[in-house]
Amino acid sequence: MNKETNEKPLKKVCIICAKGTIEDVYATLVMANGAVMEGIEAKVFFTFFGLDAITRKQMKKIHTGTVGNPAMRMPGGLPFPSILGMLPGVEAGVSAMMKQQMDKLDIPPVDEFLEMITAGGGEIFACKLAMDMFKLEKEDLWEGCSGVLTIGDFYGHCGGENTQIIFT
After folding, report:
1. Contact criterion met (CB below 8 Å) for 33 and 148
2. 15-49 pLDDT, tens per residue?
3. How big is the chain by its Cα radius of gyration, in Å?
């Protein structure tokens, strides 16, 4: 406990990833990995399109969302006109550029990041509702997935003092 502020240290983060773009998936992975590296318990729940991050057929195909992304920037920091994202090949090109930048920074691919998180004691879960919606089976998921849960079951893992639930 910090005696000056009466704050108690964070003990657990429960992160919900509902989007399957590079920027959303990697935000989730970076936060979960950072937590386990700091000795904080981490539980990650992938739902809806976020399931792509832990679905074996999709996890290497994650791309950048170019249409409707007001924060998208072109090289040099100029705003990216969203309409360009609709042109054939633009989304693939932007995604390739993002992946190149991530490679230069030695940011691991999704499966390697998941392995780092679980090796550090983090747990990865899939959403039962989304699995049913997309007709996925446990066998379709990355092998390190801890289980398929309802949101209620996931919330059961999120209890305890000094726990934060983060939605990405």
Report:
1. no
2. 999 999 888 999 999 999 999 999 999 999 999 99
3. 17
At the top level of CATH, which class does the domain 12-60+109-167 belong to? Answer: alpha beta
Q: Judge contact between 98 and 11, C-beta under 8 A.
A: no
Specify the pTM.
0.84
What does the domain layout of the chain look like in residue ranges? 12-60+109-167, 69-108
- Enter the tokens of residue 145: 């997935």
